[in-house]
Each structure stands twice: as C-alpha cells, then as structure tokens.
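Task: complex structure prediction.
Instruction: return structure tokens for all chains below.
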Amino acid sequence: MATPDLHAYANPLRFRRLAVAFTPWLLLAGLGLLGAGLYAGLFLAPADYLQGESVRIMYVHVPSAWLALGGYLGMAIAALSARIWRHPLADLCVQAIAPIGALFAGICLVTGSIWGRPTWGTWWVWDGRLTSMLLLFLLYLGVIAIIHLHEDRARGHRMAGLLAIIGTINLPIIKFSVEWWNSLHQPASIRLSGSAIHADMLWPLMLAALGFLLLFAAMVLMRMRTLIAGQRAEARARRLAARLG
Amino acid sequence: MSIGTGRLFALLVRRDLALMAARPGEWLLPMLFFLLVAIILPFALGPQPAVLGRFAPGILWVGALLASLMPVATLFALDSADGTLDQLAVRGVAGELLAAARMLALWLGFAGPLLVILPLAALLLAMDMAGLGMLALALAMGCLGLCALAVVAASLTIGAKGGGGLVALVVVPLAVPMLLFGSRPAEPGALLLTSAAALLLAAIAPFAAGAALRGGQG
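Output:
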C-alpha cells in the first residue's frame, strides 16, 4: 500500500544509506571509548577502600544498568512515535531495541550478581535496585514475546509497542514500590554507594558508559538494517511466488 | 438506531455477565484454582499454623495472581473467532468501551467468587482472622488491577499463535506493585497504595486494549 512520503527518514532506502554510513563510525568509536574506559577502570582507577578490587566490575555493571533503562525509554518513545506519526521504521526500532536492551539488563543482573558474591556474601539479594532491574528484564522479555507471538509481523510490532508504552508508565511505580518494599525488610546497610564517587573512578565510568552507548546505537542500526533486509527478501519472495503461481 | 454510550456500556457488561453465567467454568475454575493454591501450599511449607499463618496473605495473593491468568486465553479469543469483535467494530462500538465493559464484567466475575471462597482459603492457611477484612479489601481492589492486566494481555495476544504461558510474562512484572503492597494490607498506607496501583492500571487498560482491539492501529 503506497503512503505519501511525509517523513524524510521514514524512507527505508534513505535510512539504510545513513545507517550504512554511520554504523562503522559508531562501532569503532564505541569500541575505542569502551576499551579506553575499561583500561582506565581496570588498571588506572584506584580500588575501593571498602570493596577492594571487586568494585571494578562497576565499569561494566553501571553502564549496562543505564542502557537497560534508557533503552526501554527509547523503545517506548519509538513505539509512541510509531503510533502518532505512523513512522514505518519506528516499529522496527522497537523490535531492534528489545533484545539489545534485554541483553544489557541481563549483563547488569549477572555482573551485579558476581559483584554481590564477594561483597554481600551471596549471589542474590532482593535489594530494591536489583529487583527493579529483574522486573525490567522481564518487561523486555514480555515485549519480545509479544513480537514473536504474532504471525503477522506488523501486528506483532504494534502490539509490542503498546506493551512498551504501558510498561513505561508503570516503570516508576514498580521502581518506587520495590524500593519501599525492600526498606521494610532490610536497613540501608547494604546499598550501592550511589551518590559520591571520586573523580578517579568517575571518568573511566563515563568513558565506558559513552562507549557502551555508541555500541548500543551501532547494534540497533545493524539490527534495523537486518530487519529491513528481511522484509525486502520476504516481499521479493512473495512477488516471485505470485508471478510463478 | 442509536443508543447512548452509558446504555451501550451497561449492555456490554450485561452480555458478558450473561455469557459467564452460561459458562460456569469461566468463573468457577479460577475460584477453584485459587482454593487449590491454599490447599497445596501447606504440603510444601509444612502444616505448622504459625508458619502458614505468617505467609497466608502472600500465598493468597499469589493464588489470585495466578488465577487471574486463567481467563486471559478466552477473554477476547472467543469473540474474535466468532466475529463478534468485527461486528461490534463495524457498528462503531469503540474498542475502549468494549474493553472497559469487559474489565468490569471480569472483575465482578473473578473477584466476586474469589472473595466468597477467601474465608475458607484463609482458614486452611491458619490466617489470623482479624486481618481478613483488610486482606479482602486489598484483594478486591487488587483484583481490579489484575483484571485490567488480563484485559490488556488478552487484547495484545488476539490472533497470536498459542503461547498462553507467555502471557504471564506480560502480567507479572506489571502486577508486582499491587502484590507487594496488597499482601501486607495491615501496613500503614499499603491498602491505599494497592488501590492506587490497581486504579491506575484500570484507567490505562481500556485505552491500551482499545488500541490493541483495532489491531494496534489508530
């Protein structure tokens, strides 16, 4: 069905040209920054006086947590713009982000768990932040599940987008309630040291976070190209079948 | 022939309740499932009344949450299969209205039986009966939120191939706030927060489900 081309970037061909141009730069810059950030974090930054060397997992753990949260927000914004402007690429963007966001949420959970073993003496505690990340991970899985439940792919995208939007409305409530619940059970003795981080630890963290962010963007662009290519291949196969049949 | 929105809403609720009365399994099975949770947990946790009583509100909440997943599979699937949804859409009945009516009917048909059987389930779990009233209130409100989530999950999976188990993935994370406030209703403010979480879901659900009923378009 032909729709008037209202949006310059809604044109998949034009998008692909831009994506092809940007992806290698994003990828290289992301890897470079990430390498620098991780090197600085692992070798240059001081160990924590309380946590010792295990604090260094922070340079992977914290950026993953930020990207998992930010990715969900980005996914919901894509879903919302798909609904408002019928942007044909925005729906694909939802599908492109979902597994990557889930991956980062998973990395955040696993690294947090590895860090928790020496620091808290256990692989898992129902800490407010850990729990809300676990629920975010489940929300991602729900979106992925809805996409793949529908045979009609466009329908699956729209339904998953709706779920992403609902999830975003509820995310602050989930986060608040889980932290409230947790405070009932355990005092603030074991909490992440949040607020004050020394500059020697902060700049490697920022480098790593920026590197992860660019990698995230590169992966989303690559996945979107894959999805577009898949759609085109499918459409071509259908045309071919129609001609032969 | 045109009828007002309020009257249409009442008609839709009445239709759903009449269908539920004609298919007793739809409201009996979730209720029995809820009771079953209260029956099997003592085997897993041990029969000591002190242990059971302590965990009773939480067990009953989990039972209600799991039971609320049961109606999801048929909530819109039957109307979709026999063309009712298309008929209603053709006649200009808004998806939001239909979803809101279904949510209300489901709440009546789900929470009602649940609250009737609640004292028995609480008795089996040796719960402190002084807290039963508050728990019943929290469950009644929480069930509204659970029904809202059931309507959303059902509308998102219309026309999907199988995958009933995956519905839990949609419902559970969104139900967590109600679960953790609602299962300790005696805490100050917990009942209000349960109600707030449930009412918010109930306010969003008709719009989300309405959009999904239109195939996610519009």
